[in-house]
Structures are given as C-alpha cells and as structure tokens.
C-alpha cells in the first residue's frame, strides 16, 4: 500500500499529466483558430500573415521548450525537425505552410496524449482503486482508520460496495466478492469462512468480517500497485531502440533535404522533405502499441511489468513449470476414506469434519466443505484443542476424536499393522492423509491429494498450439510421483527431487536452449523466476516474493491465462512492428516524392499527419482482443457447477467401491458374500442411473454445444465400457446368489471392480474438464 506521501506524489503526477494533455489540446484549438483567421482574412483580401505567423511562433516556443527538456534528459530531440521546418517556413515566406505544420504538430501531440491515455486506461484504473481506509472493530464500536494503520490480527468490517483494504481471513459464513479489478474475472466469486481474501476486491454482498493477515504495505493490492507503477514507468527495448533510430534519422532527413535543394536549387523542396520527415510512426506508434498491449493484458488479469518482459514473453519457446500450486490447486482435497473393520467411512468422516470446524487450517476447511457437500450432519465440537503442525483433539457427540498426524491419533501408542499398511499405500500413491482416532481407537484415514487444476490440460495444449516447443515440469517431489503427474499432462520432460538451488540451475540450463519462461507460485520459486528469461508468477493468492521476483504476474488463479498472455504479447509486438514498418515506409516514400518536387510543403504536412493518424490508430488495435480469441460460454456456469456437484455427490459411491476392493483383497471371510451383494446394489441403484441419465439426456444437449460430427462419441464409448464392466460384475454376483466365491471368482470380481473404479474416475475427470471448457468465456 502506498505510504502517506504517495497519494500526494500521485496527485502531482496526475495534475502534471492533466496540464500537459490539455496544453496540447488548447494549442491545437488556438492554432486552428489562427489558421482559420488567416484564411478568412485572405478571402476578404486582407493580409493573412499576422495570424499565420502568430500560429508558427506560438508553436515554436512550445516546441523549443519541449526539445530542450528532452535533450536535458538525454532523449532523442526529434522535435528539432519540426523546429527547423517551421523556422524554414518563416524564412522562405511560406506562412500558410508554417501554420499548417504548427497545427499538425500540436494536433499530433494531442493525439499522442489521447492514445497513451487510452492505452494506459486499465493500468490507471488499478492504481486509482487503491483502498484508502478501513473500518476496525474496537470492542463493540467501529472506527474508521487509514488503511496504512491496520495491524496484523485486527478485526475489520467491510461494508457493502467497499474495497477490502488488506489481505485477511474471512470470518463471516459466506461473502460475495467482485474480484474483476484485480483478476479480470467478471462474475462475483462466492467465498466461505476460512478463505483468504485479497485486498482490492469489492464486497458485492452484505457486510463481512475479516481478520487481517497482512499490513497494508504487505498486502496483495500494494504489491499490484508497485508492479503497475513499474509497468507505467518502464520503457520497452523497442521504444528505446526507436529513440536511438531517431538520432540517425535527423541527420539523414537533413542530408536528403540538402541534396534536394542542391540538385534542384529550390529551397521549397528541402522544406517539403523536412515536413514529411518527422519519424512519428517510430517515436509514437511503438510505445502506444506496447502500452496498449500491457493494458489489455492487465484487463485480463495478466500483469506484464514492463516492455522488456512483454518482448521476452512473446519470444518464449521453452516453459518450465513448478508443480505444486501452479499445475495443481495447491490445496489438499479428499480423494478417499480408509477405515478398519468396525468403522463406517461416512461416520468417521462426519466426526472428523465436525472437529475440523474450529480450525482455520486450509485442509481442515476443505474437509468441512466436502462434508457439507455430502450432506453430512456436522455436530458442534467441545473442548477442542489444536496442536500446530499436528492436528486437533476434542469431543464430538460425547466421543473423544483426534484428527491429524498418525502420532496425534495414536497418542503415544505403537502403530498397528493396519496403520503401517496405510502409510505404505499413501507413499506408493503420493498421497497425504489425516488419521482419525475415536475413543482411543484407530478409526480411519482421510486420504488427501493436491488435485490438478481443471484448466491445466487445456492450458498446456494451447501453449503447444501457440508455438511453445518444450515444456518441463520442475518439482521437489519424488521422481515417481512427479513422473506420474507429468505423463498425465503430456510434458516433454520432468525434473524431480530438486531443491530451490537445483531449480535455479535447471532454469539456467533451459535458458541455454532458447528463450525460457519459468512459472511458479511459492516463495521457494522466487530465485528460479528471477533466473529465467521471463519469470511468471501465479499471484492470485498475494503479491509475495514470487510475484515481486517475476516479470509477469497472473492475478487470476487460472493457468489458462498464460497462453492468453502469450497470444496478447505476440500480437502486440506484431502490431508495433506493423505500425513502424508501414509508417516509416510511407514517410520515406513521401520524402522521395517531396525531394523530386511533387509534394508541396502544405500538402506534405497533411500527408504526414495522415500517416501519423493511421499508424497510431493501428497501434491502438492492441487494446482489443482479436475476434478469433473472443468467445461466449456455450454452457451456463450454473449448469456446469450443478453437474460438477453431482460428481461430488457420487464421490462416496466411489469410496464405497474402493473399500469393497480392499476388503475383497483380504481374501474370503464370513461377510464376503454380503459385501459382494452390497456392492452390486450400490452399482445398480446409485452409479448406473447417473450414467444412463447422462447418456440419454445430457449428452444430446452437450453435442449441440460442442458441434461437429458425433462430438460426444468418445465419451459415449466410455459409458458403454462402464455399463459392460458393471454388467459383468452384477452377473457374477447374481450367479453366486449369496454363496461364497472360489478364488478364481473372487479374482474376477476384484478385476471388474478395480477396472470399473478406474474408468469412472477417468470419465468424471473428462466430463469435468468438458464442463469447465464449455462454461468458460473470454470476454
């Protein structure tokens, strides 16, 4: 958050810019009036010299001051050409030409200010929305204080329509937040108690309570303000190169003008050459295109800090990705429940989630949310005690419950065979878990995994289509775990078991192959981001060390903004090049025509102004997404959410089938026949009706959205395989008719069940990615 003197500095800069912008507009109007006055005088057979000379002199004074100021800052003084042109017009008695040149110069500067203002609009909007004040609870009272005075741990109330002043933890049950100013997401986001809220977002619902996690200076929006300020102040290498070109262009223009005069003996030809020689396409169009591109990217939640970063991003051929928090959600989610004999999965999960309600830990809150989605009746825990890094212990419905590490659940006892086996199973699958003990007995383990983001596969496919030649996954995880994720996503290479120092070395090695971008989100990624040609941070959770070290920050927590940023940067650079090449080519052609005597000074001024206007408006095309990148969601987002919720509600069914697999793996026991029949009932009454409804009702509707010949054919084939496996299991279960199976029959039941679970999980993942894609829109 800006310090106390920063608003004054920003206001000073604003008024200075306001004055400069209106100075050029006013000059253009005054000179236009003087130009018209001379024309009227000539029509009335009076002398037009005075108003036309006044117009030239007025512009000469302003241009002289600006040229001296530019030279004092060691910038290219291209206004020297305009000065020489106007002085030459006065010496040669070409008063009308001089007045026209003066008007064109003033109007060109006004157009430049307008174009830059349009291009910087999105960046300026971020700066102007900096939270200024906060409402702090003090006992039963509420006091309004400057945002800079908020301390960590304060309890704030954010009223409807107000911006959240600092990063904090949501204490209210729910909140509706407009995050468009920060992330570019147009739809309000619903947050629940325990979620971390970014500063700068707008409270779109009722008043909400917040516990501060950071000071104003440390908060997300302050980091964004700092980065936006850098983006506004920095000049692209392309722009600096334009300044250098201007230094040799001035002598070249003077040489051509001198030759035209020397060969023809007509000084008006030299004047005409100078009139059309101003390199506005180079000096104006390039920076306008670069700033417009940065502004468009900011509007889409992609903060490109400067022009150098934009050009590096446009050149990127190799992309290196950190795994956790970048390719995955960075949040542990429930993927299964394992219980020993005598305990039911739903009851164990209900007791654990009930106790987790008192914890602010992200994993605890994720488990609570999952329990509510499963419609489990959570109880209010009593005497809850939380041990940081270990878990919780308390009482739920009169039972003593412990949730967390194995050591906490065992409470000093030795691990039994069941717990040891689950630890080995979790290690093999790369899972973590929360062990649950009830009344001193091991009751189960909640299996947790960091899930791959829904948009990750699509983002990686789009990056390859955009011309990225090599993708590398960089991770500190074990090799086998990392390779499993990399293979699932289609990476070209995977580098696992890497420390932060190893990550830096790996990124530097990739940079030797070509322009390399590194994408990460954690503090430990900051060195690698700094080592890459262009560092890209997933900054939606706060502008921390990684966002500060990065050149590009994705303000919205979505990886598919990366290929969009790549497209935007490449198109912006292309537009800048188009504007410069076309504009300079036209100016060179006009210089040649003027040198040959076919372009009088007055007409030359009009031609040059036309070239300037054309290239600047072409540069402003970078403000808009191309038509092919705009799309509308084919599926309402509410429908997509409802379909994904149905899958979530079926998760207990898959958990039940996996538990049956584990029990059947234990060989024959007295309850085997009952277990086989129970699983058959679950498949028939809960799983298959969902799949049949999808095939008969949902898929025909989706086919119209996807289009093409039989677009849902592959998905329907998966349904048929699910029906086949389910039918095979049910037939075998019916043939047994309650009798105990022999070893071959038991083996076949396990095979069918394992295959069914695997294909249903894959099918759900495919469907959820399809729902996400169809409901997503790029405004």
Task: Provide the fold topology.
Layout: H1 6-43, H2 49-72, H3 79-91, H4 95-119, H5 121-128, E1 133-138, E2 141-146, E3 155-158, E4 168-170, E5 174-178, H6 180-183, E6 189-192, E7 196-197, E8 202-203, E9 208-212, H7 220-233, H8 237-264, H9 267-276, H10 280-299, E10 302-304, H11 307-315, E11 318-322, H12 323-327, E12 328-338, H13 345-356, H14 362-373, E13 382-387, E14 391-396, E15 399-404, H15 406-410, H16 417-429, E16 432-438, E17 441-452, H17 456-465, E18 470-474, H18 479-489, E19 493-495, H19 500-511, E20 516-520, H20 526-531, E21 534-538, H21 545-549, E22 552-554, H22 561-595, H23 601-619, H24 637-665, H25 672-706, H26 713-736, H27 743-775
Parallel strand pairs: 11-18, 11-20, 18-19, 20-21, 21-22
Antiparallel strand pairs: 1-2, 3-9, 4-7, 4-9, 5-6, 5-8, 10-22, 12-17, 13-14, 14-15, 15-16, 16-17
Main location: membrane
Domain P-type ATPase A: 129-228
Protein name: P-type Zn(2+) transporter
Q: Can you walk me through this structure?
A:
Its EC number is 7.2.2.12. This is P-type Zn(2+) transporter. The chain is of the alpha+beta class. It is 59% helix and 15% strand. The protein has 27 helices and 22 strands. The strands form 5 sheets. A 7-stranded mixed beta sheet has the order 10-22-21-20-11-18-19, with helices on both faces. A hairpin with a 2-residue loop joins strand 14 and strand 15. The relative contact order is 0.09.
